């Protein structure tokens, strides 16, 4: 016998830890490599910020730390960067986008020029690189909150990109949001305000 | 039993438990892994799937393979995260797959038009909805008493948790559900 029974015992012991790792991945947090340029310059900036030609796909690949703590009672906030299952391409595909608006908000769709009211149980997602991003504005419309899987809290690889991810986009651009009276909320208030219908 | 005896007994119990804590953790994780990725028992309550599932509550086996690795079929009963409330799940039947063009009523056409105007087609003969890619159309068997795609539009396949395989309780109704 080429493999001793001791080998098998150790193999079984190793395999028995797989579900434990899965529980950590599902309930605590996980690590997700980010692909694509839709969150530039916050994620995957490729060339140094400011030198990136428009439409260029980035070279570097950031790896982010995703928190899944307390997912059941998780209060999604405007400005969070979230990881979600794709609305269009099946549950195996993941997207990383920023939450621009929550249920009850009226959001300005910069692609169509129209205002959209986000229905209950949904959110409005926009990539920081608004011109190339596939997001609520360009394809998906309001996205159900049930698709969200976790919040990206920090970039952990490569080491020169170590940082905690901020709640508002680094470019300073923000979508127009109005409150229920139709008044324009000032930019700072849009990030921190909670709409009346948010849990 | 003397106090000393009780203390000894308790200490022995704690020692035993910490020896077995790792095994307990591994067992609990294995159960959790199984429930999330293979299958689990689910209690379905509510009148929306009458007469197929009772309103008082049926316990069914739900499997997780189909939405991830296989194609859903029309007439499958699935459990999905509610598009209206991410903390709730709904149990409905798949009545339309991606690409299907479905005939819908006026109220449905208007409701779906609010969310996805590009998939609604209104002609003089009636209204149609085209199910977009990566989505399905869900309807409860009890049409009068069901909130489903006719109110919230097509549901993304990524929201579907699993497919109902068979009923377990009540025992006299156990078996395939169709």
Automatic annotation (TrEMBL), chain A:
Its record classes its membrane topology as: Single-pass membrane protein
Which keywords annotate this record?
Answer: Hydrolase, Membrane, Mitochondrion, Mitochondrion inner membrane, Protease, Transmembrane, Transmembrane helix
What residues form the catalytic site here? 38, 97
Give the GO molecular function terms.
Answer: serine-type endopeptidase activity
Q: Does the keyword Transport apply?
A: no
Provide the protein's localization.
Answer: Mitochondrion inner membrane
Which protein is depicted? Mitochondrial inner membrane protease subunit 2
Source species: Cyanidioschyzon merolae (strain NIES-3377 / 10D)
UniProtKB/TrEMBL annotation, chain B:
Give the subcellular location. Answer: Mitochondrion inner membrane
Task: Answer yes or no on keyword Protease.
Answer: yes
Q: What is the uppermost EC class here? A: hydrolase
What protein name applies here? Mitochondrial inner membrane protease subunit
Which family does the UniProt entry place this protein in?
A: Belongs to the peptidase S26 family. IMP1 subfamily.
Q: Which organism is it from?
A: Cyanidioschyzon merolae (strain NIES-3377 / 10D)
**Keywords of the record:** Hydrolase, Membrane, Mitochondrion, Mitochondrion inner membrane, Protease
Which ranges carry the Peptidase S26 domain? 27-167
Protease among keywords? yes
């Amino acid at each position: 016998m080429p493999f001793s029974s001791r080998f098998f015992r150790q193999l079984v012991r190793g395999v028995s830890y797989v579900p434990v790792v899965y529980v950590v991945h599902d309930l605590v947090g996980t690590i997700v490599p980010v692909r694509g340029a839709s969150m530039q310059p916050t994620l995957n900036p490729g060339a140094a910020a400011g030198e990136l030609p428009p439409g260029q796909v980035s070279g570097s690949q950031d790896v982010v730390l995703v928190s899944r703590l307390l997912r059941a009672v998780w209060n999604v906030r405007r400005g969070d960067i979230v990881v979600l299952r794709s609305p269009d391409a099946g549950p195996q595909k993941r997207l990383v986008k920023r939450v621009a608006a929550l249920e009850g908000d009226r959001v300005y769709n910069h692609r169509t020029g129209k205002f959209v009211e986000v229905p209950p149980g949904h959110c409005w997602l926009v990539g920081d690189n608004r011109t190339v991003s596939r997001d609520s504005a360009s394809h998906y419309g309001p996205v159900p909150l049930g698709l969200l899987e976790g919040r990206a809290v920090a970039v952990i690889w490569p080491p020169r990109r170590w940082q905690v991810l901020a709640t508002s986009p680094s470019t300073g651009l923000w979508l127009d949001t109005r409150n229920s009276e139709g008044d324009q909320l000032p930019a700072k208030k849009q990030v921190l305000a909670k709409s009346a219908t948010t849990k | 039993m003397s106090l000393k005896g009780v203390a000894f007994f308790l200490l022995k119990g704690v020692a035993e438990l910490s020896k077995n804590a790792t095994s307990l953790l591994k067992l609990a994780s294995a159960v959790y892994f199984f429930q999330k990725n293979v299958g689990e028992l689910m209690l379905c309550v509510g009148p929306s799937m009458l007469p197929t599932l009772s309103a008082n509550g049926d316990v069914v086996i739900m499997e997780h393979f189909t939405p991830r690795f296989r194609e859903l079929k029309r007439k499958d009963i699935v459990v999905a995260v509610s598009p209206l409330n991410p903390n709730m799940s709904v149990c409905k039947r798949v009545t339309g797959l991606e690409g299907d063009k479905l005939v819908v009523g006026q109220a449905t056409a208007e409701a779906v038009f609010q969310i996805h105007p590009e998939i609604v087609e209104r002609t003089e003969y009636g209204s149609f909805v085209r199910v977009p890619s990566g989505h399905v159309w869900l309807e409860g068997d009890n049409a009068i008493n069901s909130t489903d795609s006719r109110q919230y539009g097509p549901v993304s396949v990524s929201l579907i948790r699993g497919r109902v395989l068979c009923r377990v309780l009540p025992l006299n109704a156990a078996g395939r559900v169709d």
